[in-house]
């Protein structure tokens, strides 16, 4: 069975986006590349893409799309399911509440309610969505959602008296510094994720840049004890949650169920030097 037949042998979900390009449907001698383990484009007009040893036309592939947490061209999953919006909505709610409490909206300083949401919605649902991404073959989303699910559980555990984490620092002034170092670790992790999205979509890049800045500013707030910095981190978190909701909505909105279908803005690919042939 050819790659074209294998791709078209099952229904392409409506909530995934397709690479739209004008293509010449004649294979060239460059169809089979000697180095088939890497993702590369070839053909007379770069209309062919080889992924994992299988060659596809560009129009047969999903394009980068925030609504499916897909960072680049990839074959359609064999399972007609898109768990990404579920994980994005969970992430957005958790980020929104964390931002509201850190910004001291309505004068609230006790984070207990956000801890409950971090565990029972943001944490559990993110991990469930990540596990479902395993079956779609989306390694990026699988890694991302499970990791951030772990973040929500670990972040909530810091403020749970039964975990004894805060109590362990009760006789010292190390607690805020420890939380700051914890957030710096997540800043570095998010920077690595963000660096993998520079060829994807504007919404994805903005969302993870905002998340990275949220972690960084909140880490600075913990290390310095500055309330103004903490509030700034909360505001950035609120903005990040809005972009997360945008991506989640894009993943479930279609012309069949909504009058509003968010546009997808693809980032331009920058060519460095002379491309491989």
TrEMBL record:
Keywords: Membrane, Transmembrane, Transmembrane helix. Its main location: membrane. The chain crosses the membrane at residues 84-101, 113-132, 152-170, 179-197, 203-223, 235-256. It is found in: Membrane. It is a multi-pass membrane protein. GO terms for cellular component: plasma membrane. One of its GO terms (molecular function) is acetate transmembrane transporter activity. Pfam families: Gpr1_Fun34_YaaH. InterPro entries: AceTr (IPR051633), Gpr1/Fun34/SatP-like (IPR000791), GPR1_FUN34_YAAH (IPR047622). Belongs to the acetate uptake transporter (AceTr) (TC 2.A.96) family. PANTHER family: ACCUMULATION OF DYADS PROTEIN 2-RELATED (PTHR31123:SF1). This is Mug86. It comes from Candida metapsilosis.
